[in-house]
Amino acid sequence: MGNKKKPSTNLNTPDQGSTKKSVDLDKYFRDTVKVLGTGLDDSQTAPSSPHGSSPQSPAGSELSSDPRMADIKEILQNLPSKNDIAAMLAKLESSMQDQISSLTSDIRQVNNGVGDLEEDRDLEEDRDQILDRILSLERNQENRDTKLMYIMRNTEDLDNRSRRNNVRIRGKGGIMQSTDITQSEDKFITLRDIITDKVIIPLKNLTGSTNATMTQIFQYHQLKHFLNKEGLLHWKPREDTQFEKLCSRPPTNKTIAKCYHMIQESVNNQLPWYTIKNQKWFSTQIEEQTWLTIFTKMMKSHSSIMLQEINYKFLTQWYIVPINAHKFNIINSPLCWRCEKKQGTYQHIWWTCKRIEGFWREVARFTEQLSNVP
């Protein structure tokens, strides 16, 4: 015994239920009627009911005559259809997708910016670490330089102490190794020993062995290149000089004294080059004996080495005068730096300049007073 379905109320039957239903609908659409208004005329009749009731029927006439029902029908006709709602939803969905895409792009840019900031932070940390490392290396380098200078000073001091009483001009000291091809066990090898018929002898004859080291081979080619470049293969044999003979002897004591004695005893028939230049300045011919007297007085006139050196520099024209400096660089003025009027030659700078003549007059007067020589 199930529940029976109530029969639907026929709108064409003018009973009390239809009137009650209309009253109930008014309760739900009261606000809508107020908004839209009820100014519909009688010509705007509602469409026929699905039951085919006409306006002439009592029920149809009752519904059509009710203005609220007409407003409801108007509202129902103006409601959007399913397609309209689907189109609006599609449009809303598209707009939401665009917004989501824009937000996704913004989020991606923010992530990229955050990544860049993190990389910059890492780079800053790496840079600080590198700077600290550089400063540490610089401090270590300064410490090493200080220690190296200390070691070098001590080494030089010890080396000088060990050699100050023993000056060697021959031997295998320094960087020269025992495998040097220019030395034998008892003497140095000379050009006379290595050149035969204008050709350098083979390397095996120099070393006495067929198994030469790389150093000996390199030195042999160096020597061969030097002899060819300087044309020494055409050198004519001559007698050894006294200095060469001294070098070929075993090391002896007082080597420097022997060298000085050898220089003093040497005879040179040619005057130095600066004597000719001085003769041109004074426009006179100076005899060799006069030059010998000048050299002797220059060496023995003072016990001070500094004053002897100054005299030697004057005699040899060691100083650079303005005219020579102008030849080195045209920016330098060739005029005398005292008077700035005449050419700054050696003779003018030291003797004939007006600003220095008074000084030499005072020197001459003072010398006359001391020596009583008029």
From TrEMBL:
List compositional bias (Polar residues) regions by residue number.
8-20
Q: Where is this region: Disordered?
A: 1-24, 36-65
Domain of life where this protein originates: Eukaryota
Q: Which organism is it from?
A: Pelobates cultripes
* Bias-annotated ranges (Low complexity): 46-61
Full protein name: Reverse transcriptase zinc-binding domain-containing protein
